Amino acid sequence: MNKSSVKNLRAPSGYIPDPGLMAAANVAIKLEMPLLLTGEPGTGKTLFAKYIASVEKMETIHKFVSHTNSAYTDLFYTYDAIGHFRESQKTDIPSAEVEKRFVHFNALGKAIQENKRSVVLIDEIDKAPRDFPNDLLEAIEELSFKVPELNNKTFAFSAEKNPLIIITSNSEKDLPSAFLRRVVFYHIPFPDEELLIKIVNKRVFDDDSNMNASTVSKIAKHFFEIRDIEGLYKKPATAEFLAWATYLKTENFDFSKIEDKNDPILKASYSILGKSHSDLKKIVNL
């Protein structure tokens, strides 16, 4: 797969948001409220952050990925206590040097330091501890933080427009009601066949004059047949569909053989869509 094809998969320029998503984003921007996005993995929640940054002409995107042990202070910074301790045994370290070497600023901390309009993406909040979402909202509302390790040095945001905070969730667990009351919410549905065809045309086949509407429709139809296989552990989503179509394109696959189970290129491509041994077997035997 050539580099330009891979780059196109990750670029926000070809992203096609549905109208409801754009409406929710505009509400969040106008009210300066966080935007919470849900939807099955691969429907474009993370890529939307890049897209809206491009549309709103915000140059910087700061990303924080939530983990099971995340604390809300991690949004601002992390402190290398062990490294600082080791070095302090050898020599005195000035505060400015401590900040430079042992304090690592993260997504929200960087946005506050920059003091300009940007996008802060907080990914997979449902993986974080139960109290993290409510603590997160307090942090967002304050947009300031202190670093005790730097003699309580304070960082505060003072620009005219706050950062746009986009939070994603794969709905692996319920989020607190108090948190949900204070965000703008949108669930990204899986695209229907018509929208999926528009997306793949825009992101994969835009420069291919050999791809007519009938052929692209057959590709989308075959993909939906795969998604509809009963008992799949994980249904392939939009991201897998685009990667699958891109792989076939770069292999110069004859798309008239899209249902030819014995074609070696097509059989190899199913490894993009099946994410377990049983799923892959079901897809190959469709």
Task: Give structural notes.
This protein has two domains: 19-187, Rossmann fold, CATH 3.40.50.300; 193-284. A hairpin with a 5-residue loop joins strand 6 and strand 7. The protein has 286 residues and is an alpha/beta fold. It contains 13 helices and nine strands. Strands 2-5-8-1-9 form a five-stranded parallel beta sheet, sandwiched between helices. Helix 9 (193-203) crosses helix 10 (213-227) and helix 9 crosses helix 11 (238-250). The mean pLDDT is 90. Helix content is 43%, strand content 13%. It is elongated and about 70 Å long.
Number of strands: 9
Distance between the termini: 26 Å
- Spatial extent as radius of gyration: 23 Å
Q: What CATH architecture of the largest domain do you see?
A: 3-Layer(aba) Sandwich
Fill in the CATH topology of the largest domain. Rossmann fold
Q: What structural class do helix, strand and pairing data support?
A: alpha/beta
Largest sheet: 5 strands, parallel
Number of distinct helices: 13
Please trace the helix and strand order, writing H or E for each element.
HHEHEEHHEHEHEEEHEHHHHH
β-strand amount: 5-15%
What is the CATH homology-level superfamily of the largest domain?
A: P-loop containing nucleotide triphosphate hydrolases
Would you identify the regions where 5 or more consecutive residues have pLDDT less than 50? none
* Shape descriptor: elongated
- Helix fraction by DSSP (H/I, runs of at least 4): 40-55%
Tally of structural domains: 2
**The first-level CATH class name of the largest domain:** Alpha Beta
Read across the widest sheet, the strand sequence of neighbours is: 2-5-8-1-9
Mean pLDDT value: 90
